Amino acid sequence: MILARMKSKGLVKKKYRIHKQTTAERVIIGVILALFGSFMLLPLIYIVNTAFKPMDELFIFPPRFFVINPTLKNFRDLAVIIPSSWVPFSRYVFNTVLVTAIGTTGHVILASAAAYAMEKLDFPGRKIMFSSVVLSLMFSTVVTAIPNYLIISKVKLIDTLASIYIPALQSSLGLYLMKQYIVTNVPDSLLESARIEGAGEWRIFFKVVMPIVKPAWLTLIIFIFPGLWNATGGVYIYSEQIKTLPVALLQIAAGGIARAGVSSAISLIMIIVPVIMFIITQSSIMETMATSGLKE
Amino acid sequence: MAKANTSIGMNTSMNNAGSGISSRTGSKPVHAVKRKLKYNIERAKKNKVAYSLVLPYYSLFFVFTLLPVAISIIYSFTYFNILEPPRWIGVQNYINLFLNDDVFIIALRNTLIYSLVTGPVSYIASFLFAWLINELGRRIRTALVLIFYTPSIGGNAYLVWKLLFSSDRYGYINSILMRLGIITEPIQWLTNVRYIMPIMIIVSLWMSISTAFLSFVAGLQSIDKSLLEQGSVDGVSNRWQELWFIILPTMRPMLMFGAVMSITGSFTVASISIELTGFPSIDYAGHTIVTHLMDYGSMRFEMGYASAIATTLFVLMVSVNKIVQKLLQKVGN
Prior knowledge:
The complex is a heterodimer of chains A (296) and B (333). Chain A is mainly α.
């Protein structure tokens, strides 16, 4: 402390600062990151390359990693295979887009409203409600798969798209992250002045809280999106006309090595959407994750 | 609680101020009762709004998360095959599970080996990568975050490993090893008991740099630089000391959150096992608690028994989480 004060008065010439990296350290860090970065990246590059490989290159021996003569044939093949299924392909796309849109929008609104109430309003039961949400982060949904099936069939949601998006609405990670973000970013004074002006809590939630927590709802969307986008409906859906895009694509991809190119084209299509969304929203996500800490 | 409703807090304190005056005039009891009534009505009204905000979410959460846990625990003490109503059989399911079901013991052992490796490794790797990229420039940091994070949001992109580990000569890894002269004939990667578990671990590590990693990156970015300067004044002399004495304690909430994410993820491996090694895998080498659960739940419809498996997994995950939370409290102390 004394040193700091002396420094601020210019009494101490030596500059105290954060430890800068030495050149050796930089090289080591660079090597480590390059090594593990390529472990992460190479399979993805392999997908991209395979997706553009013509048939003869798929069967070259020894197999080549990179594509020599890139072609769009795999994507064209996909377009050829698609119309031969007896439900129009646009139907699968529509189903997945619908499920994803309802699921993400609903999740963001419901989880944000609940997070706002749990953090900023006083009502009996709010502590136990939040603790139960935190507890649920500690086990995954596979534990509840069987009772969930029984409940979904009890409420007559079997073989409906709602069986995919309704359970998604209550994802606990979303509520948790939203509440942590509200703690640090929504000042009580702002809510106070809104209340003095006579605004109701729902109005305050939509007009005051929601605009402030925009980075957090982008984060909620990013976390819930891949699950919905890749959702197959599993055991819940059996009618062909409400099956989703991943189901249709997986059926096509199931053709074995002969379809390796087409199946990579499919993987590329499925992966590209979440990745683009992440790139667009990453600064908001980082802002939200900065408040993600668990305090106990 | 105190923070939660400052408006009510202010109202009551103002009322109290009023009561100070009125008590001097001598009509205290009547006023006190009236005030309390008024306060409670106000609070109830406020609560009604609060419940209207919280219940749309929480009722779904109750129905699809809490209730299923309760149902699962109850069914685990019954014989239930969906066709007949459940029949109470006490702890028989658990006795069968731990004493008579050899496949479950294999699944339990596999799950423990698997999660003891992937959980800690992915957790430490997530932190290490976050720490290493922390001081890089913004652009390159963002690019690296994207590279490390993408496999976890890629849906079924992990199926590419099936091509890489393909057991014929066209499998990329076989071909490299053969060209390097390490092996002379292709290895049956995905059907050889020796390789199934290591491959599952590699693939899931590839996919495991996810939520915890983002939390660490963001946490490190938001560390107050003046804290590090202060540390250097106080005699922190190298990066490791800086990490242990300043960064880790500051990051503790993120470390706890990241641990929850890593542990929960590591215990629920199933789709990787099924897609890569088949279901059931050769000699159950890739069999996990979750695939065992799927076997009994969605194929044999022995719901009581499957519920006992689910409940075991639930207890396992929650208790490991709680223990690790306790341990993390000690970091940097």
